[in-house]
Amino acid sequence: SEVFLNEMSYFNGAYAIFIEDKEKLYFYNDATSFLSLYYHREKNIYASHSEILHQLLQQIYNIEEATIHPKMKGFLDLSKYENIYKFNSNFRFELNNHTLKRIFPINTYKEIATSNVVKQVLPLMKEMVEFIFNLNRPVVVSLTGGYDSRLTLALLKSHIPDTLFFTYLKTDDKEMSEAQRKIYQNDYTAVTYLVEQLNLKHKFFSINKTNINEEVKNLYSYYESDHSKYIIQHYSEDQQFQNVAHIKSTLFELSKGVRPPKLEGQESKIMDFVHYLKRWSQIKDEQWIERVLNEFITRNEINEFLEKGYHPYDILYLESRMNGWHSTILQESDPYME
């Protein structure tokens, strides 16, 4: 019902909900697919990781789906295998009949004054912070020099003494482009200043390429991405990063917009963004990107989203970049952090 969906709009955290109603079983998950679900195009079989689903298809149905790319990195809703897709958290899955239905967004797009957004969101975020610190688990926060990290610091103001902050850097110039070198240098300078001014409990650590231990190497065979391989190597060896609550700042994007400024005020069609998507895709062929984007639009009922007045870039950001890529890289740290 719309009442339930409105209530669900305020749910937080990583979760999966199963609801049984009149012999039908429905699946919902959290708004950014922190608890991911992968499904097959035809068979009603599901798993948390595409690799597990691929193995189940082999064992149960003798189906061998071809590999598209070894690490698809959450592009659109694709997995590294043909016909295996990532569930879109703006949908409801009726598992009995293996049918998907778009449930979000509920309302048409409208712009709200920044001051009103702050009034609505700030109390909810403060409540979320208190919930995390009531878990009675060590809390760690990844800190950069960016705006999102500064917002996180402001929200954590009363808990700063109880929080371990950390920043990872590359220090080997041979491994970095000039742009990466500048980013890491800016992070180091800004974070050093914040640590000194706020007396933060903080540590830097290096993510230069090292030999990956067997535990981490085996885990990576299950993943869709290898974004954080050397960070995860550090987590696996440092007890301070195991069984902790990890606060990340990038998810909320409240401190800055997600849409490139040059797109503001422009009328755009979703197929105009093939060039933008090329940056996110492991396969750079634009004809291939155009084909899979068309299939993504159909499979995910994107036109219904567009009809509510939302900008195509925002839709792709929410349903590919966040639902896809961001939740995919978070799976890499699942064995150590929440």
UniProtKB/TrEMBL annotation:
Which Gene3D superfamilies does this one have? HUPs
Against InterPro entries, the record matches this protein to: Rossmann-like_a/b/a_fold
Q: Which domain of life is it from?
A: Bacteria
Q: Which Pfam families would you find in this protein's record?
A: tRNA_Me_trans
What name does the UniProt record give this protein?
Asparagine synthase
Taxonomic source organism: Staphylococcus chromogenes
